[in-house]
UniProtKB/TrEMBL annotation, chains A, B:
SUPFAM superfamilies: Winged helix' DNA-binding domain
Domain of life: Bacteria
Coiled-coil regions, chain positions: none
Domain Transcription regulator PadR C-terminal stretches: 90-173
PANTHER family: TRANSCRIPTION REGULATOR, PADR-LIKE FAMILY (PTHR43252:SF2), TRANSCRIPTIONAL REGULATOR YQJI (PTHR43252)
Alphabetized Gene3D superfamilies for the sequence: Winged helix-like DNA-binding domain superfamily/Winged helix DNA-binding domain
Name under which the protein is recorded: Putative transcriptional regulator
DNA sequence: AGACGCATGTAAGGTGTTACATGATTCT
DNA sequence: AGAATCATGTAACACCTTACATGCGTCT
C-alpha cells in the first residue's frame, strides 16, 4: 500500500468511480498517470478493499466502476490516523527562477510570461471544477460531514494558490522594471498583496 | 540530464557549494536527498559542467566545493529558454483531507492540528532563511540582476504560501464548528482571508 | 484528415528513496 | 548517553513515467 493506493481509497470513499475518473480527479492536486492507477486498482481489488461493476457501453470502451468495501474503509481509518509524510514538491519553474539573475531581461521576461500563462490556465481549470462542484451539491458546505466537503476544501485552496501565483508573477515583473535603487526595503511580496485591495 | 541536474547547475550558478549545501538549499522547495545529489554531481563533473576543489577540514569530514564552468553556464542558458514541465505535487495530507467527511470530529480535529503544526514549523524555517538572506545581502533586491535575486523571490513566495496554509487550517476549523445551516453561501476561503485584515 | 476524449491495460526504462557505511564534534 | 550536524558515497529496491497497444465517436 503506497500513498497513491490510499489516495484511490480516499476518493472512492466519497463516490464510486472508474480508473479514468480517478485519474482526472486526482490530477487536480496529485501528479499521476493512468498507468500507475490501473495496476493499483487491481491490487486493491485482490485485497478486497474495493469491488467493481463492469458497465458495457456502446461507442465508448466498457468501463469498471469501483466501489470501496468495509475492509477498505477500515484501512482508510487506520491510515488517516497515522502520521502523515511531508509533501513532495518538484517544480522545474522554481529551479529556473532561482538562477534568473544571471540572464538578460528578454530571457527573464519570457520565463515570467510562461509562468503566468501556466497559472492562468490552472486558474480557469480549477475555477470551473469548483463551480461544477458547488452547483452539483447546491453550495451546502456548512458542516464537516457535508457531501464532498473535502473536495470543496481542497479546490478552494488550490484556486487561492494559483491566484497568488499570478500576483507573484506581477510582483516579480514590478521588481525587474524598477531601475532606481530607492525603496530597497519595500519589496515585500505580502505588502504587495495587501496593497492590491 | 534530468531536472535535478539542471537544478544543481542553477544553484551553482549563483555561488560555489558542496553537495551537502545543495541538499539543504534545494530542500526548501525541491524534495530530494543527498543520495540523489552526489551521483549527479559526479556526472556533471565528468561532463565538465562543474569542477570541484577538495577542502580538508579537521573535526569534520573533508568536503568538495563545486563551481559551475562556462560549459555548465551554456547548458543552463539552453535549459532556461526551453519549455518547462508541469510541477510535480504529491501531498499525502491533501489525500487525507479529501475523505474527512466520512470521519468523526475527533479524527478530523487531530488531522487539522497535525497539518497546522506542520505549516507552522515550515513558517519558522523559511522565515529564518529569508531573514538570513536579507541580512547577508543587505536587503538590496531592487533589480533583477541583484545578488541572490532568485532565492529572494522564491523564499518570499514560500513564506506567503505557508501563511495561507495556516489560515486555511483555521478556515476549515471554522466551517467544522458551524452547526447551523445558515449562511451557506458565505463559506469562501478568499473572503475569509480578506476578512482578516 | 487528424486530433482529442473515452477507457483500459502492459512493458521498459528512468528516477527516487531507504538503508548501509563511516566518524569526529557539539548539543541536550 | 544519545541525538544531531557535518560530509560523502554505494546498493537495493520501490516508484513513476513514457511508450506501446487498441478502437470508436466527435470535433476542427
Amino acid at each position: 500500500m503506497n500513498k497513491l493506493s490510499y489516495g484511490l481509497l480516499s476518493f472512492l470513499s466519497t463516490e464510486p468511480l472508474t480508473g479514468y475518473d480517478l485519474m482526472l480527479k486526482l490530477n487536480h492536486f496529485w501528479s499521476t498517470t493512468h498507468s500507475a492507477i490501473y495496476p493499483l486498482l487491481a491490487e486493491l481489488e485482490e485485497k478486497n478493499y474495493v469491488t467493481f461493476t463492469l458497465i458495457e457501453q456502446n461507442g465508448k470502451p466498457d468501463k469498471k466502476v469501483y466501489e470501496i468495501t468495509d475492509n477498505g474503509r477500515s484501512v482508510l481509518k487506520d491510515w488517516i490516523s497515522s502520521p502523515t509524510d511531508e509533501a513532495v514538491r518538484k517544480d522545474e519553474m522554481m529551479l529556473k527562477i532561482y538562477c534568473i539573475q544571471g540572464f538578460d531581461k528578454a530571457t527573464i521576461d519570457k520565463l515570467i510570461d510562461e509562468m503566468e500563462n501556466r497559472y492562468k490556465k490552472q486558474l480557469i481549470k480549477h475555477t470551473e471544477s469548483l463551480e461544477k462542484l458547488k452547483s452539483s451539491v447546491g453550495n451546502k458546505f456548512n458542516s464537516c460531514n457535508a457531501q464532498r466537503f473535502g473536495s470543496y476544501l481542497i479546490l478552494q485552496k488550490i484556486v487561492c494558490d494559483v491566484k497568488i501565483g499570478i500576483e507573484w508573477c506581477k510582483w516579480i515583473r514590478m521588481l525587474c522594471n524598477k531601475n532606481d535603487g530607492i525603496n530597497c526595503l519595500d519589496h515585500n511580496f505580502q505588502d504587495f498583496l495587501k496593497s492590491l485591495e
